[in-house]
Amino acid sequence: MILFVESQESKKRRMGALLTVLVLFASLIFLMNDYRLSGSTTGDLEREESWERSGVMPDIMVSGIEVQPRVPRGAESFVLSVFCQNIGVVRSGIYTVEVVVGDVNGGEVFKSRAVQKKALEPGQVGAAFSASVDLDGFLPGKYTISAMVIPEGFEDSNSENNRSSRVVDIL
Fold first, then answer.
1. Which run of H or of E encompasses 15?
2. Which of 8, 10, 61, 74 could cross-link with 161 by S-S, CB 3.0 to 4.6 Å?
3. Dist. CA 68–CA 16, nearest whole Å
4. For residue 124, which of 92, 151, 96 has the smallest C-alpha distance?
């Protein structure tokens, strides 16, 4: 008569093999059944087709308005620069920047626009507008510089941040 003695090592191997067979069997059962989501029992829900709600869009904003020198003198020209940033998650398209300098009475003393043909990558800041400004018929005082970004051929996810303004004292 021959006695077989089973070692700890062989028990572990047998348990591992059994566990592997069970996982394989469960996987086959899962694959044979259709576990896709079924239609709504309370009514059909419309599938979202627009990118707007998912937030996968560019978002161009006016990120800064700069005047050089910081306190301009009315008799001299000054450099006006506007910076834009894409805070969205995808690349922007072409956009236009409109800039208006208004006096205390609400009159426009300077107006210009620039088309930016270079798209902004997500997170990128770019100089969108730069011009030398001469104020004809200058009167010292506070002037309001307003800048607006207009997307061309793409939808901006947040049009609320497409405008910005800054008040500048001109001596």
1. helix 8-32
2. 61
3. 75
4. 92
